[in-house]
């Protein structure tokens, strides 16, 4: 009995700390690897930057991907078809949430928390000042890089504070205000602006998406992807449709949902994994995604896959090491950039997506 006790304790500890949680929280992913992608070029010493670029596929349609280059942790843009790397005049990467626009426009926060704006037309970044008495200043950069846009509240004698959009033109500092025809009691967040003239994309807690024009009128929505936990963390418009995914989820299986001119579909990610990155081709024909474990137990592999949106068919899948956390991004319609690590060096590989007959 004395000899058996340590073994029993070890088995019990393993069961409670690993075996039972793993059995409950992790599902097996049994889909086979399939398909081939043709690599057309590679950039050594680079990773794809995790940036915010609005909701209207502006970077994808412009045919560029933002990179972080080593050494120096500098920002750059990758364009096709010649795999050209263009430097961006901005400080090295720090602890900042970037917002970017095609053509080299960048909105970022410095080490002291101040907001700054960089552009290819400027010799150096410009520090931006907050508006007078802002309730909460978290502006987005318009897709054309020409304006800052943020949500504000208008004080009223009744105590209500209706929502309004504030726009600052970066060329001359001029500001304008748009009253939103939306209930003052709703919780809203601005997640995209095509230009200073709109349309503007707003998420309502917890799972509604709208678009407004320059007059504050709703022109799209509400879109309600009910299977998604909160679409403000993962949403893209495309002409005639949209894609939403669980950029974050408290519990349950992560999902990707779309309603596009090509078709409708849903992808359910097996338990124990989260969506690391997702990108939509400029014409809406393909969705590319990478998933990685969101747990610190087990040995769950990461995966990268490519799906046709017209028939929900996977045309490419590869399994990767547990913590690969692959970033990826479409460049236009037929190029896909993905990060890769090899011998402690990082690469960004660009692949050509094969034409698929309808």
Give start-end ranges of low-pLDDT stretches.
Answer: 12-20
Helix share bin: under 10%
Q: What sequence of helices (H) and strands (E) makes up the elements?
A: HEEHEEEEEEEEEEEEEEEEEEEEEEEEEE
Sheet with the most strands: spatial strand order: 1-28-27-26
Radius of gyration (CA) equals 22 Å
Distance between the termini: 69 Å
Judged by helices, strands and strand pairing, the structural class is: mainly beta
Helix count from the secondary structure assignment? 2
Tell me, briefly, the overall form. globular
The portion of residues forming beta strands comes to 35-45%
How many beta-strand runs?
28
Mean pLDDT: 87
Largest sheet: 4 strands, antiparallel
Top keywords for this entry?
4-stranded antiparallel beta sheet, single chain, 358 residues, mainly beta, 2 helices
Report on this model:
This protein has 358 residues and is mainly β. The chain has helices spanning 4-25, 58-62; strands spanning 38-44, 46-48, 64-69, 74-79, 84-87, 99-101, 105-109, 115-118, 126-128, 140-141, 147-153, 163-169, 175-179, 188-193, 200-204, 208-212, 218-223, 235-238, 241-245, 255-260, 263-268, 273-280, 286-293, 302-308, 314-320, 328-331, 335-342, 345-352. The strands form seven sheets. It has a four-stranded antiparallel sheet with strand order 1-28-27-26. The chain has a four-stranded antiparallel sheet with strand order 2-3-4-5. A four-stranded antiparallel sheet has the order 6-7-8-9, with no helix packed on it. A hairpin with a 3-residue loop joins strand 6 (99-101) and strand 7. The protein is globular. It starts with a helix and ends in a 6-residue tail after the last strand.
């Amino acid at each position: 009995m004395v000899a058996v006790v340590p073994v029993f304790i070890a088995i019990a500890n393993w069961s409670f700390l690993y075996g039972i949680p793993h059995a409950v929280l992790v599902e097996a992913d049994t889909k086979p690897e399939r398909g081939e992608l043709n690599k057309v070029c590679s950039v050594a010493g680079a990773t794809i930057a995790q940036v915010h670029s609005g909701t209207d596929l502006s970077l994808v349609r412009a045919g560029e991907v933002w990179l972080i280059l080593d050494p120096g942790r500098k920002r750059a843009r990758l364009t096709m078809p010649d795999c050209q790397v263009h430097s961006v005049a901005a400080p090295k990467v720090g602890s900042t949430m970037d917002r970017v626009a095609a053509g080299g426009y960048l909105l970022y926060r410095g080490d002291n928390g101040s907001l700054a704006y960089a552009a290819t037309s400027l010799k150096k970044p410009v520090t931006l000042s907050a508006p007078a008495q802002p309730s909460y200043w978290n502006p987005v950069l318009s897709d054309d890089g020409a304006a800052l846009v943020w949500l504000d509240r208008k004080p009223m004698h009744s105590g209500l504070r209706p929502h309004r959009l504030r726009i600052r033109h970066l060329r001359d500092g001029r500001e304008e205000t748009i009253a939103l025809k939306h209930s003052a009691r709703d919780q809203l967040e601005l997640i995209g602006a095509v230009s200073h003239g709109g349309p503007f994309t707003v998420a309502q807690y917890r799972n509604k998406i709208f678009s407004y024009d320059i007059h504050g009128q709703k022109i799209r929505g509400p879109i309600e992807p009910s299977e998604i936990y909160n679409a403000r963390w993962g949403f893209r418009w495309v002409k005639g449709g949209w894609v939403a995914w669980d950029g974050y989820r408290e519990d349950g299986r992560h999902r990707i949902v779309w309603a596009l001119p090509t078709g409708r579909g849903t992808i359910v990610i097996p338990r124990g994994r989260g969506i690391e990155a997702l990108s939509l081709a400029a014409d809406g024909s393909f969705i590319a995604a990478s998933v990685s474990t969101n747990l610190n137990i087990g040995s769950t592999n990461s995966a990268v896959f490519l799906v046709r949106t017209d028939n929900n068919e996977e045309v490419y899948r590869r399994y990767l090491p547990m913590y690969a956390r692959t970033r990826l991004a479409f460049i236009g319609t037929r190029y896909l950039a993905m990060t890769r690590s090899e011998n402690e060096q990082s690469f960004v590989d660009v692949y050509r997506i094969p034409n698929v007959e309808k």
